[in-house]
Write a structure and sequence with these properties.
The protein has 274 residues and is an alpha+beta fold. Helices cover 67% and strands 9% of the residues. Strands 1-2-4-3 form a four-stranded antiparallel β-sheet. A hairpin with a 2-residue loop joins strand 1 and strand 2 (24-28). It is elongated, with a radius of gyration of 27 Å.
Length: 274
């Protein structure tokens, strides 16, 4: 059983030897070797090879997590020697710990430490993706407000704007609003955009922004001409998405963006209180 003071010592040592390589947090295999209780480099290399094999089996690029480098080592009496080293990402360290001898207290600690740290990184990444989606939805809302104002000046009322927007959605998704809501499981009284993935929200925003710009540049007015413009812009965006392997109507629905925004706000409040 590892004592509390040992845990604190190991934690401090792991954090202390972390460095940066090409903008990424990383560890030196040579330094990790001693921290994990291995005295012989050749024995530690066997563990690294097992970790690489685990990395390969998960379809993750080995070269992205294990980078071979040459390093100058200080020898006794001030002499220097060139030797091999491996730059390791946090994920690589996690795999090494998982393949190490768990009877070693250092390995037992590292298995838990890197598992928790990797999970923390995943949570941070997920939160950033959720923030991006919330911001994209807010941007679309602002773009559609601008478009509505531009169209109002061109003789289009709220009913006409709703028709134009609906025709644009059908051009983008090949489904009318009711069909799209049914496909995505969107409540009748909620906007489709609240349940779209980020890329679809940005696609709608791009098409709406082009329409707002072109209506003024081409001096368009009235529902028919503006509707054609908006449909053409959405068809153009759809074409780009399909060329990149994205079929708008086949993308899975996302969590209610309002619910996501409330959760992010709640988390921020808790962090501030903490």
């Amino acid at each position: 059983m590892i004592k509390t003071d040992e845990v604190q010592k190991l934690f401090s040592q792991f954090e202390a030897v972390a460095s940066e390589y090409n903008g990424l947090e990383c560890w030196s295999a040579r330094e990790l070797q001693s921290l994990l209780g291995y005295t012989e480099w050749r024995n530690f290399l066997k563990i690294i090879d097992k970790a690489k094999e685990s990395c390969k089996n998960t379809a993750v690029g080995i070269c992205e997590h294990f980078v071979d480098v040459n390093k100058t080592f200080t020898m006794p009496h001030g002499a220097e020697k060139e030797g091999e080293d491996i730059i390791l990402t946090r994920y690589a360290c996690y795999l090494i710990a998982q393949n190490g001898d768990s009877r070693k207290s250092e390995i037992a600690f590292a298995q838990t430490y890197f598992a928790l740290q990797t999970r923390r990184s995943e949570l941070i990444e997920q939160r950033l993706l959720e923030l991006e989606r919330v911001e994209a939805r807010a941007k679309l809302r602002e773009t559609e407000k601008i478009l509505s104002e531009v169209l109002f000046e061109r003789g289009v009322d709220d009913k006409g704007f709703a028709i134009i927007r609906s025709k644009g959605d059908k051009a983008l998704f090949q489904l009318d609003t009711r069909q799209l809501k049914r496909k995505l499981g969107v409540p009748e009284n909620r906007p489709v955009a609240d349940f779209l993935p980020t890329v679809s929200i940005k696609a709608k925003d791009f098409a709406a922004a082009m329409t707002a710009e072109n209506v003024q540049l081409k001096d368009l007015s009235g529902v028919p001409s503006i509707e054609r413009e908006h449909v053409e812009n959405n068809i153009g965006v759809r074409k780009i998405m399909i060329e990149r392997g994205l079929i708008p109507e086949n993308l899975p629905p996302a969590e209610d963006v309002q619910k996501v925004a409330r959760r992010l706000k709640s988390e921020k409040t808790k962090l501030l209180k903490a």
